[in-house]
Amino acid sequence: MKKNNVFFIGLSLLVFGISLFLISNIILSLILACIIGIIIYRLIPIIKQDNLKYLKINHAYKFCTYFNMQMFSTTNIYEAYKNIEENLPDDFKNFDGNDFTNQLLSLAEEYALNGLSLYCKTLVLYSNQGGDFFKMTNSSFHLIQNTKIYYEKLKAQKKTRLFEILTLYLLWLFVLLFLKLGLASYFDQMSKTIEFQLGMFFILLIGFTSLALTIKAYYHNQIKGLN
User: Fold this and answer.
1) Cα–Cα distance between 68 and 191 in angstroms, integer?
2) Residue 168 half-sphere exposure, CB side, CA atoms within 13 Å?
3) Measured CA distances, 50 to 53, 54, 55, 106, 226 (Å)
């Protein structure tokens, strides 16, 4: 079973358990768990896409850095590429010498990073016309470098904010659980009424949904270097 599926099932069961404990209604707890489960399931691709963006930025930065270092010892871009190929991410491996520049441009288009796209176009220009390689690639290299720095800072700041928000939600949930345990007899009497069960259902639904939307907003953040 995939790790994502295990996480999805585990979190859905946790929501169901908490809901059943607070609502005391199996049907409402199942409905709530299903709703939250669907929201979580839809969040997983968004999280994976955001992680993929970060991975691509790192791959692009690694390629440009290695390539620049290698160009100190050669003027042939394909020779430089072959010398560093084994150290590159898989996406940048196995490029053919006869179609090297076209493959680079195609990968840059797939990555959708402005810095990498400009860097690869500059490589093509250098290959066709020559010139001072480092002057030609200076702006594009700094663009991909700044993109990486910007995104890492942004991600760190967002993680801090997200941790603070998660802490608040956990405190909110803890208060509900504390009231349930601390006022057990009172809660038991109230939980027998459908009005209380529906009220608790909507409280939990709003709470879990707003948390999911907050996480979604975090992972949808736009970053520099992306089209």
Assistant:
1) 68
2) 11
3) 5, 7, 9, 21, 12
Judge residue 12's burial from the number of C-beta atoms within 10 Å of its C-beta, 0-12 exposed, 13-18 middle, 19 or more buried. Answer: middle
In the chain, where are the structural domains located? Answer: 3-219
Q: What is the reported pTM?
A: 0.77
CB 162 within 8 A of CB 218: yes
pLDDT digits (tens, 9 = 90+) for 8-54: 778 788 888 888 888 888 999 899 888 888 888 888 888 888 888 88
Contact 96, 77 (CB under 8 A): no
Interior angle at CA 127, CA 126 and CA 132, nearest 5: 30
- The span from the CA of 209 to the CA of 36, in Å, is 7
Helices assigned H by DSSP within the chain = 3-23, 26-70, 77-84, 100-111, 114-129, 133-182, 184-190, 194-219
Task: Tell me how crowded residue 120 is: count the other CB atoms within 10 A of its CB.
Answer: 26
The SS3 assignment for 226 reads: strand
